[in-house]
Specification:
The chain is mainly α and about 350 residues long. It is built from 20 helices and no strands.
Length: about 350
């Protein structure tokens, strides 16, 4: 059981063997600790640990609780203990399959964009290698970025709309990470912007196909002061989407997988509760750094100009170094849908980048 690599495989073992089930009951803490560690690579496990800890913060969340977590979480080494608290290991075992769903959806979206880029820019792409399954390095990078983005959302979501400002907490959280790691989270943020834009467009298409008396149209008409499909709410759709990004991966998966009236009801109910001019703390939290941006070899994060040596989860991704040491147009609050982040450039390993044909371009 200690080698189970997913919750499904563990459940299958327990269901198939009464003996395994008896052992599991007597050593549940140990078995779930091992399973939790198997779900994430070693250097990514700490990020899953942070997300699990953030999920257990006292509610309602106060600014003081959030600030204390942000100030201390990088010094927390309890994830190294041989047997984790049952509440934490259980939470990580629940987070793992959810993150994996988003990893695959993220890659499907990025791969489609990368193929379109190849056609548009005339890149020489090796389709067999390009479409191969994600490597362990690529999956780990994407897992890490989603864990961190989720943790950040958990720390600020309950504070939005209060008198206390929360956007500076985003900057404090991001301050724990180097620029290339922040760019990984930016890829996740832009992925959600693209996917949620598609959801909003699908709801409008459903409404256009429906008769005025149909349920989706009626739902839009009862949205509030203005019909949800009218001009004024459309102006605030970016705010609605930014708000939805803070509501957690379970909610976002439900939105992305839902269809028809259920999808429209989820989106409209969330939109109605969104503060006007809402901005995700990620989008605004990095602006000050962005305005005075220095590439890594100047800011001293890596201690000098970098050359790519090998793919690893600990070192800077080749995609980041290839992008002229990060000297690309950086904005975390513009609703653009074109750019390197569309294909997750800092997530890809060297073999994928080579297969994509982008390394031949400057």
């Amino acid at each position: 059981m200690r080698y189970a690599c997913s919750t499904k495989s563990l459940f299958a073992l327990l269901k198939a063997s009464p003996r395994f089930y008896q052992v599991f009951r007597s050593r549940r803490d140990y078995v779930l600790t091992e399973l939790a560690r198997n779900l994430f690579p070693g250097s990514v496990f700490v990020d899953a640990w942070d997300t699990a800890k953030a999920l257990q913060l006292p509610q309602p969340l106060t600014r003081e609780i959030s600030d204390d977590f942000i100030d201390t979480f990088t010094r927390d080494n309890q994830h190294e203990q041989p047997v984790l608290p049952l509440s934490i290991s259980t939470s990580i075992c629940q987070i793992g399959p959810l993150i994996d769903w988003f990893v695959q959806d993220f890659w499907n979206d990025c791969l489609a964009n990368l193929k379109r880029l190849g056609e548009y820019a005339g890149l020489r792409q090796d389709m067999q290698a390009l479409e191969s399954p994600l490597s362990a390095i690529e999956k780990g990078r994407i897992q890490r970025a989603f864990c961190r983005f989720e943790t950040m959302g958990l720390l600020v979501a309950a504070l939005k709309g209060k008198d206390d400002p929360y956007l500076d907490q985003g900057q404090a959280f991001l301050g724990h990470y180097p620029d290339d790691d922040i760019e990984g989270m930016a890829c996740v943020r832009d992925y959600f912007a693209r996917r949620l834009s598609g959801v909003f467009e699908a709801i409008e298409e459903d409404a256009m196909r429906a008769k005025p008396s149909d349920a989706i149209r009626r739902l839009g008409q009862s949205f509030g002061e203005h019909d949800w499909f009218s001009r004024v709410p459309k102006l605030f759709q970016p705010d609605y989407m930014e708000n939805m990004m803070t509501l957690g991966l379970p909610f976002l998966r439900e939105v992305l997988e839902s269809r028809g009236l259920h999808r429209a009801a989820l989106v409209m109910a969330t939109s109605a509760r969104t503060p006007r001019r809402f901005t995700h703390a990620f989008s605004s939290g990095h602006n000050e750094v962005d305005q005075n941006y220095l590439p890594p070899y100047q800011s001293g994060i890596y201690g000098g100009e970098q050359e790519f040596h090998d793919d690893s989860l600990e070192d800077c991704a080749q995609g980041w170094l290839w992008a002229n040491y990060g000297k690309l147009a950086k904005s975390y609050n513009r609703w653009t849908r074109k750019g390197f982040r569309d294909w997750g450039y800092v997530m890809l390993d060297s073999q994928r980048l080579k297969a994509a044909g982008v390394l031949e371009r400057e």
